[in-house]
Amino acid sequence: MSEASALNEVSGVKENKMGVMPMNKLLINMALPMMISMLVQACYNIVDSVFVAQLQEGTDEAVSPALAALGMAFPFQMLMIAFGTGLCVGVNAILSRALGEKDYDTVQKTANNGVFLAACNFVLFLVIGLFMSRTLIAAQKATGLTLEYGTQYLTIVFCGSFGIFTQFIFERLLQSTGKTIFSMFTQITGAVINIILDPILIFGLFGMPELKVAGAALATVIGQICAGALAIMLNHRHNEDVAVDLRGFRPDWGIIRKVYIVGFPSICMQAIGSVMTFTMNRILTGLNPDAVSVFAVYFKLQSFFFMPTFGLNNGMVPILAFNYGARKRKRMMQVIRLSMAYAFMLLLLGFALFQLIPDKLLLLFDPHQSGLSELGVPALRIIAYHYLLAWFCIIGGSVFQALGNGLYSLIVSVARQLVVLLPVAYALAQIGGLPLIWWCFPIAELMSLCVTAFFLVRIYRNVIRPIPE
Question: Which SS3 state, helix, strand or coil, does residue 153 take?
Fold first, then answer.
């Protein structure tokens, strides 16, 4: 037995807090740090675009081409994030369940293979960034400065992606063992560095060169690298349940298979989101090129409410997976109910703000009063109706993943974004043009709610209810 395994045997004598702490206190303890860090992440996503929107370049275009460029790069950033978070969903669920079962050998193997797979992800996106960035941006009908800026941004973000993949995997190792406070530190560190560097690198302050959109990309990459380095250090010093050691490492294909059985549906779901955003950009460009900027701004603003909800998910998943491994049905149901209640409150707040002050929100991205608000106000108010349904679907999807049924999440995502949203968007664009197309989001979310509810009932009957009290 290795020294790390022996230490884990000793630490395993003490019951993990995920199995004994009162559930509301535990969920807040686990999720609140992640929600705060995700909120900071949302802020720096917004700050990125706020600064970039000021780069008008003296063109005759109504909306900043730099802002449109970020919108064109966004689908492929989503794809990169899909690979990182999908891997981590699998690692998180397998590792937390193994902790609940006190299977410390599987814990260590899962951690080591997770780090290896994160490195593989980086190599993949490095190659894409070097050779395909311009082609990917041009495929969305981008031209002129939008094409140039989008290519610059995507190349830098992909080629520097070792930072975000390192950050993802080592943060999830902390989260899987209940140490979410440390992953909050890493995410806040990366976000703060990004926010500080954004104006310096974009506008060339303090003697730095004016890098414009490339500066925004560099600020993002530098922040991710710093966060990843901090996550490694915190795992080494404070995560006694997991000791990553790659000396003499060989891939364990059995562990890798288990990780991707759980995580691959998550990768597909978010990759489908990338396909949806890419296709919507093409449809919107055909209606009004400035609508792409409206769509990009919507995603930035929605992150202010969705990112904390995903942080709530990140706190819930290891709790649910741990108690599933420990066969504690009552605690499983408690964490599901509480998570749904908190998610509903978060997205209800988002709905209210999108209905009441959409013009104020859009002014952040329209400093020159160029017309973005005129297009964006009706769009935000219509799209916001899906907030009233999305809370249920988000938590439901995470329940599927935590209990090893990620295929259900994949089916819901495919049905929502490919089977319903895109065909409805195309049909509405043909019928009523830009004013009508935004209704595709509430319509697709209604379908998603129905399918999610159906699968949750199946999960309860087949997985949760058979567990003895």
Answer: helix
